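Hi W., the calcium ion complex you wanted:
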Amino acid sequence: AKNRGKNQIAECTPGLRSKVEVTVGMMRQLLRAQERNELELFYQPQVCCGTGAVVGLEALIRWRHPEKGMIPPGLFIPVAEQTGLILPIGEWVLRTACERNKAWQDAGLPPVRIGVNLSVRQLQNPGIVDTVKAALRDSGLEPRYLELEITESVVMKGTDTIETINRLKELGVYISIDDFGTEYSSLNYLRSLDVDRIKIAMPFVQGVEESRKDRAITKGIIVLAKTMGLGVIAEGVETRTQLDYVTEHGCDEVQGYYYYKPLPSAEMEELLRQQGLS
Ligand code: C2E
Ligand code: CA
Ligand code: CA
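Structure:
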């Protein structure tokens, strides 16, 4: 039976075969990457529209590959999700983000909230509640300084995931919907989930100069969030016009290259330090 399995792989289309090989190869390298401390977090500042102050950060994973250089998450997170490696990697991200943020606070820097991306796969695992609890306890970070970013697609995974999110919420952490408006489940989850804020997906924000539709959608999302008593942040703000548009319509915060790209830990710390002095 073992041999037959082998032959089946050999017989399948070259495209599929190479895809399997690439995934398995990448998985081996990712396993080693974690052991060798090649994974690293960058931090992208989130800026208050009213004051221009940095009020939050999003932790974004990078893989510092010894030969290939810095690999962005888009190239390895999908493999981590397919292979289940996202569970140990995701736990490392959570712990590292909590520890870093607590260390900055302990150093006397202005306290900020830190956002961590959670994959659907992590949320389908009920153990995630204990994982988050342990990361908070071990780091000493207060729950209100941790934000968990989830995507709309989790709600399509059913009531168990919704239950898990509500239990996370009970820990006192902040919950936000990432890439709002880009997935299938529409608005129904806003009724079933108790979230704190919405992150307006990049394509809408970046379309405000060119597209009447994107302007309407962006404004509509801000109004929806505010009417529901939720916070709202615009992602991918790259221009002054985009910043002005969302600010005028009542958006709380922005995140994007107009202000800052994701920064390595040392640069993030320096930025917080400067802000503390001003
Ligand atoms: P995301 O959660 O939507 O993160 C925002 C992405 O947009 C980041 O890309 C960020 O660098 C990029 N970005 C921010 N501002 C701008 C802008 O003004 N213009 C443009 N063009 N891009 C901007 P990045 O770091 O490559 O991350 C891509 C995705 O990978 C993330 O999208 C998230 O879905 C995933 N990801 C990153 N880190 C993690 C992680 O620790 N765990 C999990 N599960 N997923 C992660
Ligand atoms: Ca995110
Ligand atoms: Ca996003």
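The chain has a mean pLDDT of 91.

W.
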